[in-house]
UniProtKB/TrEMBL annotation:
Gene: zwf
Organism placement in taxonomy: Bacteria, Bacillati, Actinomycetota, Actinomycetes, Streptosporangiales
Record-given protein name: Glucose-6-phosphate 1-dehydrogenase
Pathway, per record: Carbohydrate degradation; pentose phosphate pathway; D-ribulose 5-phosphate from D-glucose 6-phosphate (oxidative stage): step 1/3
Active-site residues, record numbering mapped to chain: 237 (proton acceptor)
Entries under InterPro entries matching the protein: G6P_DH (IPR001282), G6P_DH_AS (IPR019796), G6P_DH_C (IPR022675), G6P_DH_NAD-bd (IPR022674), NAD(P)-bd_dom_sf (IPR036291)
Protein species of origin: Nonomuraea wenchangensis
Length: 483
């Protein structure tokens, strides 16, 4: 469709997220013709850079990570970039005046204020933007994670931002929603007829949602000590995958219809309270193994403290959804750093055949892989060729997006930035969603805080502590591992 001209103002504009994800994604949008010729990107930071310095920095640090097949397009992209210096909490900082001068001649444009700065700056930056008279009816604000560290802090941020912007102007990012397979999950479920009749507790035994990473947390201790896997990955990414897997079919492909159904799933999660956390949750922390350092030995700007010893770098949870469709079907969630592979997937395990006439065999599984190679696999039982006794073997019926579609799979941020620029909030979290997610997470955090026990150690490069295997093993189930 036609692309609007917008001024995109990025707070934290020279930070890690901006340099590694946002600017490369914007370049791709530019290259694919999804930015209007006048669209500008204004990076805000404390850096005191001139436009030319910032362009030089992007040229030096971003160019090699993107495909520059036409140098003219790269120059056009650099030409969109500006830099303004501000500091949070400094309402009369000259930067606000400078920003106003840049924006004022284009009052009629869409304005997007992208807060890729720490969450404590969200409220103050919004207030200062309003005081500087920069918030127009055509303005939107994008909030990066983490959106608070518990329900009260999330509500405070939502109140502060909500005092300046209407809910329809607020775009809360969860970059997992921009991943291609995640959107494909909705298409798979709601554009194919055969799945819906079996998508329930009559046919499905359980669901596993895994986000395994090989990376550790080098240099991130300052953040990670106070986050941990539950806040960093489960509250947002894994719960979003759970809602899309479990939601009822919406009546329309429309922003509110889809988000209404998602929030109902979060509200139906059975709370895990007090000592139940011992049975339904597992915490782990990686320790050094081979060449890999343990969490406490990761090089970091700060030495380890008591919080470092208590923080989980791995968690596994048995969640339950209390409604007609899902009663009795566990949703196992698992995420960890320094696991043996990088793999994010949703595994739907169907029930076993009611009566087996062949030896061996295992239940059908539907695997939706988000990464590394995006695809969908349905594991069916087949007969191994041979004249002897029948031997069963699971064979995947596989759809590989990379092999089926030749177009490049866009990065999550490309899709999300395109949607923000177009004003489409469907793939962003609504206030009630974020708060419902925290409402379920908070009691688990409380239970973990209340126990003197430390997270279970697991050697770096392994699939997590023994407890994670027992969580499923107790009911005769096992995590889906590479065969
Ligand atoms: C971020 C977390 O939100 O997601 C990181 O803060 C994590 O700790 C990252 O590594 C994972 O994203 P992806 O897209 O690589 O799965």
């Amino acid at each position: 469709g036609p692309v609007h001209t917008a001024d995109l103002v990025v707070f934290g504009g020279t930070g890690d997220l901006s340099m590694r994800k946002l600017l490369p994604a914007l370049y791709h949008c530019d290259r694919d013709g999804r930015l209007s010729p006048e669209t500008r990107v204004i990076a805000m930071s404390r850096g005191g850079l001139a436009d030319a310095d910032f362009r030089g920095k992007v040229d030096a640090e971003v160019r090699d990570s993107v495909p520059v097949d036409d140098p003219a397009v790269w120059q056009r992209f650099l030409g969109r970039l500006h830099h303004v210096s501000v500091d949070v909490g400094a309402a009369n900082h000259p930067g606000w005046h400078h920003l106003a001068e840049l924006l004022a001649p284009h009052e009629e444009r869409d304005r997007v204020f992208y807060l890729a700065s720490p969450p404590r700056t969200f409220g103050p930056f919004c207030r200062e933007l309003a005081e500087a008279g920069l918030v127009t009816p055509r303005s939107r604000v994008v909030l990066e994670k983490p959106l608070g560290h518990d329900l009260p802090s999330a509500q405070r941020i939502n109140d502060e931002v909500g005092a300046i912007f209407d809910e329809r102007q607020i775009f809360r990012i969860d970059h997992y929603l921009g991943k291609e397979t995640v959107q494909n999950l909705l298409v798979l479920r709601f554009a194919n007829a055969f799945l819906e009749p079996i998508w329930n507790s009559l046919w499905i035994d359980h669901v596993q949602i895994t986000a395994a990473e090989t990376v550790g947390t080098p240099g991130r201790r300052g953040y990670y000590d106070h986050a941990g896997a539950l806040r960093d990955m489960v509250q947002n990414h894994l719960l979003q995958l759970l809602t899309l897997t479990a939601m009822e079919p919406p009546a329309r492909n429309d922003r509110e219809a889809i988000r209404d159904e998602k929030v109902k799933v979060l509200q139906a999660l059975r709370p895990i309270v007090g000592t139940e956390a011992d049975r339904f949750t597992v915490r782990g922390q990686y320790v050094g193994a081979g060449d890999l350092p343990g969490y406490l030995d990761e090089p970091g700007s700060t030495p380890p403290t008591e919080s470092s010893r208590r923080v989980e770098t791995f968690t596994a949870i048995r969640a339950e959804i209390r409604n007609w469709r899902w009663a009795g079907v566990p949703f196992y969630l698992r995420t960890g750093k320094r696991m043996p592979y990088r793999r994010s997937e949703i595994v739907v395990q169907f029930k076993d055949v009611p009566h087996s006439i062949f030896p061996g065999g295992s239940p059908n599984r539907l695997v939706l892989r988000l990464q590394p190679e995006e695809g969908i696999e349905l594991h069916l039982m087949a007969k191994e060729p041979g004249a002897g006794e029948v031997t069963l073997k699971p064979v995947p019926m596989a759809l590989s997006f990379g092999k089926t579609f030749t177009a490049r799979v866009p990065e999550a941020y490309e899709r999300l930035l395109t949607d923000v620029l177009a004003g489409n909030p469907t793939l962003f979290m609504r206030r009630d969603e974020v708060e419902a997610a925290w409402r379920w997470i908070d009691p688990i955090l409380d239970a973990w805080r209340a126990t003197p026990a430390l997270p279970e150690p697991y050697p770096a490069g392994t699939t997590g502590p023994a407890g994670a295997h027992e969580l499923l093993g107790r009911s005769g189930r096992a995590w889906h591992e590479e065969e």
